[in-house]
Structures are given as C-alpha cells and as structure tokens.
Design a protein that fits this description.
5 helices; alpha+beta; globular
Length: 182
C-alpha cells in the first residue's frame, strides 16, 4: 500500500469550482482508496491504495470529479517519497522563513530550465526562484499576492502542463499526512 497526496488545482477559489471536502473524501473512498483525509479547503487529499501510479490515479480522480461535479479539475498525485524529497531539496532556508514567503509549484512533468530563461532574475530581487524535480521553489518575501516574479512565472503556460502551487506550511503538512507513521 502506498500513501499519496492529491493536489487539486483551482477549486474553492472565488466562488467557482466548489468541491466540498466531505464530498471529495466520499469520492475517493468510492474509488476504492482507504485512509482518505483532506487538508484545508483548497484541494489537498491524502489516501492509500495498492493500485495505480501517480498519473493513472490523477486521471482517475480528475475524471471522477468532472463526472460528479460537472466541471474539469486538474489533479496531480504525488507519493510520500516525492513530497519528502521536495522538502529536503529546498534551495532556500525554509526554517528561517515565514510560510507565506516560500512556495512550491508542483508540475505534472519535468520543466526544462530554458522555459524560464528569458526571466531576468536580478530584476526581481529579493524574490527568487529555483527549479527542482517537477517543481519550482519561489521565495517571495512580501508574499505571493504581491509577487511580481510569481506573476511573471505564471505567464507562460505550456500545453499539457499542469501546475499548482502550495505555501510552505502545506508542503510540509503533506509530507506529514502521507507518512506511514500517521
């Protein structure tokens, strides 16, 4: 059995794409998953299963959400090992920062550095970003809502690429929730 986190993109924001967490838990349980839990209202669920891989599980959940709620939702599924590696590989001093200053954008596939080559990082200082394994770390000292760099990074959606961001508190909590010691 493997424990996964499902990251739903763009739900329960600004009155659109409402997915109640109780309904999401019921949906995941109905798909045959166990140990189902949700975290916050912004689209994190944790579940255990012995079948499937990250991509097939994400596609299955995305399809079930569209069937149940009537709208498409992009979903990423990541296992505990990957989530732990993201935390351990953080290029910024996470322990010294406020959670609102550090974010991780999870990608559905690897992203080549040349995708962001035209961004003049020095022009955005003290904000910074670094690429990781299917993720991007963003240090935004004034928070994501005021970040000009975050705005710039989001301007170039790639066809077929799913991207969803979480603040550092959520990133760390997902590691905790997917731990087999929970």
């Amino acid at each position: 059995m493997t424990t996964y986190a499902a990251l739903l993109r763009g739900i329960n924001v600004g009155g659109g794409k409402k997915v109640p967490m109780a309904d999401l838990r019921t949906l995941l349980t109905g798909l045959g998953h166990t140990g189902v839990r949700t975290y916050l209202q912004s689209g994190q669920a944790v579940f255990t299963t012995d079948s499937g891989d990250e991509e097939s599980l994400a596609a299955e959940l995305s399809g079930a959400i569209e069937e149940r709620f009537g709208f498409p939702v992009d979903v990423l599924v990541r296992d505990h090992g990957y989530l732990t590696a993201v935390v351990e590989s953080c290029p910024f001093p996470a322990a010294d920062l406020e959670a609102r200053q550090l974010h991780v954008t999870y990608f559905s596939m690897p992203v080549a550095p040349d995708r962001f080559a035209e961004i003049d990082q020095a022009a955005h200082l003290p904000e910074e970003f670094r690429l990781g394994d299917r993720c991007l770390y963003l240090y935004a000292p004034d928070g994501l809502g005021r970040s000009k760099l975050a705005e710039r990074l989001a301007r170039r959606p790639a066809k077929g690429l799913i991207a969803t961001s979480r603040n550092w508190n959520t990133v760390v909590k997902l590691v905790e929730l997917t731990s087999s010691e929970e």
